[in-house]
Amino acid sequence: MLKLQYPICCGVDVHKKLIVATIVFTDSNGISEYEQKTFSTINSDIQKLHDWLLENDCYHVCMESTGKYWIPIFNYLEADMDVCLTHPKYVKAIKGKKTDKKDSRWIADLYKFDLVRSSFIPPRDFRQLRELARYRFKLVCMKSSERNRIQNCMTVSNIGIGNIFSDPFGKTATEIMSYLLENTSESIEDKVVRKLIRKNTKASSDEIFAAISGYKIESDQAKKLTLARGHLEYLEDMVTQTEVELYVRMKPYWTFVELIAALPGMSDISATIILAEIGVNMDVFEDTKHLSSWCGLSPANNESAGKKKSVRIAKAGAYLKPLMIQCALAAVKCKKEPYFAVM
């Protein structure tokens, strides 16, 4: 028989415009009574939900992590109640018997026996850091998209800068590209181009001339290049501003940043983003394996009839996993720490 954990608890089904809440009261004999209400997602109604729960002495609430819609409700309830946020797959209702009211009641029934796995929700200050860190991730992805568009324009315009420069967006490559955009005559002046080539450029001047000679930038590609390069500069400035804000907010925890950044392959920004995702309180994770699994860096288990099937790493850690892989690759290439080098 299942052991009752929460005699009074609430299951909340969250939607964009609607909140369905069910409070379940269970006595010592295991008999349950339900009280259900529906609220809108405007602030005044969320406050009514908060007051209604307190009136019924309900201090344990469970709800699905539906998009971003759970966040305003969580912010209202977290100060006075124990809020369990769970992945929808752990409270999935039976097919064919699914309505908002039934979902809310089903969540409450599962939660009263503590059958729901709670998601890790860091404290408010780390949630704010996480929002900024994830926004930076999106900005970096947008930068990559713009760089791809610029390189496509170069290819269409017979400009082979990407073939000879290790970084097509380095200082020399950028200045040469600016010159080609401004030079409408399509004839290259050797003296001007040579002045743009920096001393530390590995490619020879002959290779550079061969890569850009015969170029032809059509009007549509010129406009596209101008807009994309301007947008790229704007995105780079936004990334810088976001990183500055992250560093300012992380100042109280800078000791932890320094500890993580001391590891091979880690930088200050990497350490800051890692802390923004996992926080500084490691008591929420059972052990290192649990943390690795939460980051999506360990494979799942798939065993049936004594046979273990091959599985890949989990889909979890959409923001943290790519960063950890990049840091691992950097550690492999770190000459100061040959221990991590791949033989």
Main attributes of the structure:
3 domains; 343 residues; five-stranded mixed β-sheet; Nucleotidyltransferase, domain 5; 7 strands; two-stranded antiparallel sheet
β content, as a range? 5-15%
Secondary-structure-based class equals alpha/beta
The major sheet is characterized as: 5 strands, mixed
Mean pLDDT: 91
Spatial ordering of strands, largest sheet: 3-2-1-4-5
Q: What's the structural domain tally? A: 3
Overall helicity: 40-55%
Shape: elongated
Count, helices: 13
Unreliable residue stretches: none
**Alpha carbon gap, first and last residue:** 55 Å
Q: How many strand elements? A: 7
The ordered H/E elements are EEEHEHEHHHHHHHHHHEEH
Cα gyration radius (Å): 28 Å
Structural overview:
It is a single chain. The chain is an alpha/beta fold. It folds into 3 domains: 8-119, Nucleotidyltransferase, domain 5 (2-Layer Sandwich), CATH 3.30.420.10; 125-238; 251-340, no CATH class. The protein has helices at 43-55, 70-77, 100-112, 124-156, 161-164, 171-182, 190-196, 205-212, 219-249, 254-261, 268-278, 288-294, 320-333; strands at 8-14, 18-26, 32-40, 60-64, 82-86, 303-304, 307-308. It has a 5-stranded mixed sheet.
